[in-house]
Every structure is written in structure tokens, then in C-alpha cells.
Amino acid sequence: MDILMDARGAAPEEKQRGLEAARAVLERIGIAAEEAAEGSFAVEGWDDAGFPPDQEPPEEVYVAAEAWWAASNAAIEACCEGWPDEKRHGVDGLQLLHDPETQLADRATALARIRAIVAEEDGQREFHDDRPFLLALAATAEMADGSKARELVDAVSIAYSSLALAGFEPNEPIEPKRQAVLDAIDALEVGSATLD
Predict the structure, then answer these.
(1) Where are the alpha helices (H) located in the chain, listed in sequence order?
(2) pTM higher than 0.90, yes or no?
């Protein structure tokens, strides 16, 4: 599994510089990106749970988490070299690359794929499909305004969840829910249009 640089407003070469710095840290420590990220998720999950003593991660998980955090910090420093502090607010650092076709889709492809998923949705999902969320993130990846991008992504995600889980409300018609998602996608397309 590979990594990607979540750095809103960064040029491709800046993102690449960040990824190279992160890979160098992980290689120096001798840990795979996936293992490091899993360590970080485990420690953060323990934190979110309120630090229950019986669920504290073992030492090797802390080591993995520290590796992920060090790699992410190195990536941010390398990517954002010379940036003013206010521009760094749109930089989240590293993410695991689970589904390159979805996470790295260009804006036009991402919008088309979200619409296709919505057209096929029957509202009977048993498991959550995160592709619309990831595609919405991909469609807004180059937007400089991170707050506006998050609003657009959230609107699509919330509307899609209502559609995907429509089977839990059998007395409500599904088509208005589908239209709500399509409207959110249209807003995302317009809101991210400054990229053209």
C-alpha cells in the first residue's frame, strides 16, 4: 500500500517532495507505511475512547504511530517549504492510498463516477460505500479554499448516506433522496469549477 500527500494548494512537485521526505523517514525507521498508519489509528482510537487502561496499545504500536507522525511531519515540512503559516492550514499530511483509481481521480472523472454510483444506488446497502466521499475529495483536491471544499464534500456525503440507507425508511420515496445527492454533486461541480 502506498501513501498520498493531502496538501491543498500544493503544486504536484511540492506534493512529490513531501512524499519523498515521508518515504525516507519510513525507510530509515524500517517500517511499512501501512503498519505505521495502523499504529497511529490505534493510538488515536485509544485516545478517542478516553484512554481505557485495559485497552492501551502495546509498545510496538506506539513505535509504529511515532513513525507515521514523524513521516507526516517530514512530508509537511518538505512540501510546504517557504510557505506562509496561513497557507499551511490546508495541509493535512499523509494518507494511505487504498484505492488509487478513486482517490487519485481527476475532477471530471470523479464527478462522473459519483453520478454513476448515485444512478445505480437502490437504497438497500448493508455496508457503507465510501467511494462517493473519496471521489468528492478527489474532485475538490485542487481547491485552495479548504473550508469550502469540506462543505461541498460533506454535502455530498450526507446526501448519499441518506440515499444509500433509504431501505431503513421504506415509507419514504427514494427518488427525492437521489435528487438531493445529484443536487449536492451539481453544487460540488460548480464550487470546484475555478479549476478549469
Answers:
(1) 12-29, 33-48, 59-79, 100-103, 107-120, 131-139, 146-164, 175-191
(2) no
